[in-house]
Design brief:
The chain has 209 residues and is an alpha+beta fold. Helix content is 46%, strand content 20%. A hairpin with a 7-residue loop joins strand 2 (140-148) and strand 3 (156-165).
């Protein structure tokens, strides 16, 4: 049986947080913008240690050339580490969205930069019409894409200004006929397929054509 002295654990806590927190901040910010998939805690901890080590190493190397005569207090160093982790994540997110990076991955590995096909086919700054065909029922929704969740088959998508019809495109319900302002939420498990209609000048359409 391993017994750990509480005082030793408490005294080691600041160093442990310093070793983990910059990398953890990096991972949280990066995943928030890029992919919100859940990660195993042990994987997060290992990556946090690795990234924090890199940040601290670059800080020490940079400090040899920048203000080498000043010995920063430990708490100031921690703030620098954390700020570097956050800023580095934002820079990487920005870089991975550049046309050069997309071109590089496409040419070298024919690979998308995204983990989710929706991010490849939807530009959230452009209006896009969806034709959503449901499974096992003769229902088709046509509407403007609003938002979606990122939970796999448990996700919901939201469309507005929609019309509900059968799959032969014979209208069953049009909110405008009843002077309604309405949205529809649809679970991904119930969807057979989705067709997208882009406006003229769509960047997504130009990208793949």
């Amino acid at each position: 049986m391993i017994i750990i002295d509480l005082n030793i654990l408490i005294s080691a806590l600041p160093e442990l947080l310093t070793a983990l927190l910059p990398g953890f901040i990096f991972i949280c910010i990066y995943n928030w913008f890029v992919s919100r998939k859940e990660m195993d805690f042990s994987v997060i901890a290992l990556w946090s240690l690795f990234i924090s080590f890199i940040i601290r190493t670059f800080y020490q190397a940079g400090h040899l050339f920048i203000l080498p005569s000043i010995d920063f207090h430990g708490s100031v160093k921690v703030i620098i580490y954390i700020a570097t982790g956050g800023i580095s994540a934002l820079v990487l997110v920005k870089f991975r969205r550049t046309k050069f990076f997309e071109w590089f991955l496409d040419k070298v590995n024919n690979k998308s930069i995204n983990d989710d096909v929706w991010d490849d086919i939807i530009n959230y700054n452009e209006p896009i019409m969806l034709k959503v065909f449901l499974k096992e029922v003769d229902i088709l929704y046509i509407g403007r894409f609003v938002s979606r969740e990122e939970k796999g088959l448990e996700s919901w998508i939201v469309i507005s200004d929609y019309i509900r019809s059968n799959k032969a495109n014979e209208p069953q319900y049009n909110p405008e006929n009843h002077d309604h302002k309405s949205m529809a939420t649809i679970n991904m498990r119930d969807i057979e397929r989705v067709e997208l209609v882009y406006n003229d000048g769509s960047k997504i359409w130009e990208k793949y054509n």
